[in-house]
Amino acid sequence: MLQILADGLIIGSVVALGAIGLSMTLSIVRFSNFSHGELLGWGAYLAFVAATALTTTRQALAAPIAPFSFGWGLLAGLLLACGLTALLALALDTILFKRLRKAGAITLVIASFGAALALRNLLLFWQGGIPRYYSDNLQIAVAFLPRSVWGGLRVTPDQIFVLALTLLTVTGLHLFLRHSTLGRSMRATALNPGLARVTGIDPERVLRATWLIGGVLAAVAGVFAGLTVQLRPNMGVELLLPLFAAVILGGVGSIWGAVLGGLIVGLAESASVTLVGAEYRSAAAFAVLIAILMVRPKGLFGEQH
Amino acid sequence: MLDLTGALSYASFFLVFATAYAIISLGLNLQWGYTGLFNVGVAGFVAIGAYTSALLTTPAASDRLAGLGLPVAVGMLAAMAVTGLVGLLVGALALRLRQDYLAITTFGIAVTIQLVANNATPLTGGPFGVQFIPKPMQAWLGTGLPWTLAYLVLSLSLLLLAYLAIEKLVNSPWGRVLRAIREDEDAASALGKWSFAFRLQSFVIGSMLMGLGGALYAHFVGFIAPDDFLPILTFQLWAMLIVGGSGNNRGAILGAYVVWGFWTAAGGLMRGWIPQAEQARAAALQVVLIGCLIALMLVLRPRGMLGETKVVAR
Question: pTM to 2 decimals?
Answer without folding.
Answer: 0.88
